[in-house]
Specification:
The complex is a heterodimer of chains A (330) and B (488). By secondary structure, chain A is an alpha/beta fold. Chain A starts with a helix and ends in a 5-residue tail after the last strand. Chain A has a nine-stranded mixed sheet, with helices on both faces. In chain A, strands 10-12-11 form a three-stranded antiparallel sheet. Chain A has two domains: 179 residues, Rossmann fold (3-Layer(aba) Sandwich); 53 residues, Winged helix-like DNA-binding domain superfamily/Winged helix DNA-binding domain (Arc Repressor Mutant, subunit A, Orthogonal Bundle), CATH 1.10.10.10. The mean pLDDT of chain A is 89. Chain A has 14 helices and twelve strands. With 488 residues, chain B is α/β, with parallel strands linked by helices. Chain B folds into three domains: 167 residues, Ribosomal Protein S5, domain 2, CATH 3.30.230; 197 residues, P-loop containing nucleotide triphosphate hydrolases (Rossmann fold); 65 residues, Helicase, Ruva Protein, domain 3. Chain B has a five-stranded parallel sheet with strand order 11-14-17-10-18. Chain B has a four-stranded mixed sheet with strand order 1-2-4-3. The longest helix of chain B is centred in the last third of the chain and has 17 residues. Chains A and B meet through α13 and α14 of A and α7, α14, α18 and α20 of B.
Chain lengths: 330, 488
């Protein structure tokens, strides 16, 4: 039962430890460490501690070659959530509207199919995937800092929403500051918790590619979302595809990769008249409102009404003035 | 000998009666102004002395001259006291018959050669004179038209000598200025016909005009945000009599009223630069508070370009006037209430570098920078915008089109919608209500957001000439809600 002592010692000494070190310093620390009162303190703060030896420790994560001594967990879901089929959705922080839209849809549809999406609570793709999940299910966020932090700060609200139905986990004890070197370590947990990893958008040298490398090292499936070959944001994902990653064209592709029967696609809403015309134009390529007006001949007010309807139906999304089609689920 | 004239000091945009008493005594020659006069007012001594000499009148020598501005507790500012002081001194020395001053107020600045210069706030001084029961206001000839608006006879003169001649009865009162044309011309306002393409933004502008909604346009530079905003006054109804007098008064006090013009009938358009201080924006400054840009935009439009670049305190200071339609400025010199019921139109880029939303440019902003840029706008402020619209940079095809609809046609529809909203505001039908409920469940839409959508939907229905709000109109209103990027 030395895992907690190891994790706390690692937090206090600023080291990254997988096992109890055989040093005099650690021995001295351990003698003075009151595990019982530390545990009470944790539970007062709503944090659970799952040591590596505990049967509740996710089997998927235990099987990687460098599992953490244990996991700090907060959130309202039970630990069984970590045993459910899971997919890591990762990608660039500075993502495009296309990437964000794809990540949101993937999150939404994977969660709807009962799959748990694991990601890193970072900006961009991570946050979009988490948000998508929250619409239809629960999700797991892995932190690269102490369990008591919400990093980045801007995602504090998102973290609260995730914790309300899902889990936030970290291998780091409360008080550990975020540091650049901890994020690759965090990525190994993201990949380790998931049966497969989907990279949505990644530059040539991206943290998301570290995650996919780690997943490959553990023999897990890696999938990538194709992007425009001229976009720097898709250089990394397109390179993965060239190396043989499975391309993702819909949530069904991802479910298939982990052997889950995709849900039958819901009947596409029958769109008649102007809504159908507008959707057909958007399906060709993302377009600003004025181009839609020019190509459909609708008045500005009529078009605005149609676009709001399409957005409500979840068929179209808008970012930076461009309307684009939401990825279809089949 | 003691003589007295009446003038009016400005307290905010209100006149306060000030009696100017001049007392000449035997004694060591001196000239003192008492009664809490500020620097510009103290300098009146030199101007009055030179002015009187230049008008070939006699400066009372070998006399001790005391001028008192009463009530003494009120701080007096500016140069408008020159003329009343000069007239009081002249009356006290019998160069002007003291009884001739009865029924007259006076306001104006003297040049060293005795010519009279107009001062800001002549309209307010004239209103004060009328309220004091006076019938004439002696003022600079340029202020004549403005004074006549207050319903009092202007005695517009070019020179102190002219004023004296008039008071001595040696010449007829100067011709009253021809009734000034209302400053009604829409000619100076750019026309919407100049805007090619931008159909969606034009529509949003029309809805904003019809409902008096606050509008936020977000888009890269060159997408025509400023161009559109500047065309808003041209599609708004002209100001009614009361509103127009109020606006003219504020502009008169601020000294930005074009000389020789009558009432301001076109809703004012104010576009302060984003470096504007809080005082410049909401009013204040040293001494007696002066109206700021928000008050100059009263009954008109306040256009804030580059909204996130404004200082945060300046933006937060906008919240009171947006809520109440007036604001209170407290300074050492006094506490003043300024009217400030304006329509807020703002523009912003989508990111600090401006390239976002522009298909031809590459945005190099980090997500953190974009986030910080957008976070400068508080939720509370964003909540005040009924209409938010992202305006991407127009593509070549949009610009090649025919000229857009002219302002006059749009204005007709806006006037119709306003009439309808006033007389019989459209109510939501049941399907529209259901759509609104569905939207609240599906979208991040707060309680305030819901009310906002409902308001805009009523305006859109009124524009369509409908008696009830149908789902299509509600759907259009939904499309002007804040985009996800800004609402989180």
């Amino acid at each position: 039962m030395s895992e907690l002592a190891t994790a706390v010692f690692a937090a206090q000494s600023g080291a990254h430890l997988l096992d109890a070190p055989r040093t005099a310093r650690f021995a001295a620390f351990r003698r003075g460490f009151d595990e019982e009162s530390y545990r009470q303190d944790l539970s007062r703060r709503g944090v659970r501690w799952v040591p590596r030896g505990d049967p509740a420790f996710p089997a998927q994560l235990r099987s990687i070659h460098d599992p953490p001594p244990g996991l700090f967990v907060r959130g309202d879901a039970t630990l069984a959530l970590l045993e459910r089929p899971s997919i890591a959705v990762v990608g660039a922080r500075a993502c495009s509207a296309y990437g964000a839209s794809v990540a949101t849809t993937l999150g939404r549809e994977l969660a709807a199919a009962g799959v748990v999406v694991v990601s890193g609570l970072a900006r961009g793709i991570d946050a979009a995937a988490h948000r998508g999940c929250l619409e239809t299910g629960s999700t797991v966020a892995v932190l690269g800092c102490g369990i008591d932090r919400d990093y980045p700060r801007a995602h504090a609200t998102l973290a609260v929403q995730i914790a309300a139905s899902g889990l936030i986990v970290s291998e780091y004890a409360p008080g550990v500051e975020p540091a650049p070197w901890r994020f690759p370590a965090r990525n190994r947990l993201v990949a380790g918790l998931a049966r497969a990893t989907v990279v949505v958008e990644a530059r040539e040298r991206s943290g998301a590619l570290i995650t996919s490398d780690l997943a490959l090292d553990e023999g897990r499936e890696v999938l990538a979302v194709p992007g425009e070959i001229t976009s720097a944001l898709s250089k990394g994902t397109n390179a993965l595809l060239r190396l043989g990653a499975t391309p993702v064209t819909c949530a069904g592709d991802v479910l298939e990769a982990i052997g889950i029967e995709p849900l039958p696609p819901p009947d596409p809403p029958a769109l008649s008249g102007p809504a159908g015309r507008v959707r057909a134009v958007i399906a060709d390529a993302p377009a600003p409102a004025d181009e839609l007006i020019r190509r459909t001949g609708l008045a500005a007010g009529e078009l605005a009404a149609v676009l709001a309807e399409l957005e409500l139906l979840g068929l179209v999304t808008q970012a930076d003035g461009l309307y684009r089609e939401v990825m279809s689920s089949t | 000998m003691l003589a007295r004239t009446v003038t009016h000091a400005l307290v905010g945009i209100d006149p306060r009666r000030v009696e100017v008493e001049a007392h000449l005594q035997q004694g060591l020659p001196s000239f003192a102004i008492v009664g809490l006069a500020d620097r510009a007012c103290q300098e009146a001594k030199e101007r009055v002395r030179s002015g009187i000499s230049s008008a070939e009148l006699e400066w009372p020598t070998k006399r001790r001259i005391t001028v008192n501005l009463a009530p003494a507790a009120l701080r007096k500012e500016g140069s408008g006291f020159d003329l009343p002081i000069a007239l009081a001194v002249l009356a006290a020395s019998y160069q002007v018959p003291p009884e001739a001053l009865e029924g007259h107020a006076a306001v104006g600045e003297l040049a060293l050669d005795g010519r009279l210069r107009p001062v800001p706030g002549a309209l307010v001084a004239a209103e004060g004179a009328r309220r004091s029961g006076l019938t004439h206001l002696v003022c600079a000839a340029e202020s004549g038209a403005e004074v006549a608006l207050a319903g009092i006879a202007p005695v517009g003169v070019h020179h102190l000598a002219e004023a004296v001649a008039y008071l001595r009865g040696e010449r007829d009162p100067p011709e009253p200025p021809p009734p000034a044309d209302d400053f009604e011309t829409l000619a100076g306002i750019p026309d919407l016909a100049d805007v090619r393409g931008q159909e969606r933004a034009r529509r949003a502008l029309e809805v904003a005009a019809a409902g008096g909604h606050n509008l936020l346009l977000a888009g890269p530079p060159g997408s025509g945000k400023t161009m559109l905003a500047r065309r808003l006054p041209g599609i708004l109804p002209l100001l009614g009599d009361d509103a127009s007098l109020e606006v003219t008064r504020i502009h008169s006090v601020s000294g930005v009223l074009p000389p020789g013009n009558g009432l301001i009938r076109v809703p004012p358009f104010r576009a302060p630069h984003h470096s504007a201080s809080v005082a410049a924006l909401i009013g204040g400054g040293g001494g007696m508070p002066r109206p700021g840009e928000v008050s100059l935009a009263h009954h008109g439009i306040l256009f804030l370009d580059e909204l996130p670049e404004f200082q945060r305190p300046a933006l937060e200071a906008l919240r009171q006037p947006l809520e109440d339609g007036y604001l209170t400025v407290v300074r050492v010199a006094g506490r003043v209430v300024f009217p400030a019921r304006f329509q807020l139109v703002a523009a912003m880029n989508l990111c600090p570098c401006g390239a976002r939303g522009d298909g031809t440019a590459h945005c190099a902003c980090t997500p953190e920078r974009v986030q910080r840029y957008r976070e400068k706008l508080s939720r509370a402020l964003l909540d005040r915008f009924d209409l938010l619209l992202t305006v991407p940079r127009p593509r070549a095809g949009d610009l090649a089109g025919a000229p857009g609809e002219a302002s006059a046609a749009v204005r007709e529809r806006v006037l119709g919608a306003r009439r309808r909203l006033r007389e019989h505001a459209p109510q939501r039908t049941q399907p529209a209500d259901e759509l609104l409920t569905r939207a609240v469940e599906r979208l991040p839409l707060s309680g305030r957001g819901r009310a906002r959508v409902a308001r805009v939907a009523a305006t859109i229905a009124a524009l369509a000439g409908a008696d009830a709000v149908e789902p299509e109109q509600l759907a259009e209103a939904l499309s002007y809600r804040p985009p996800v990027e800004l609402s989180e």
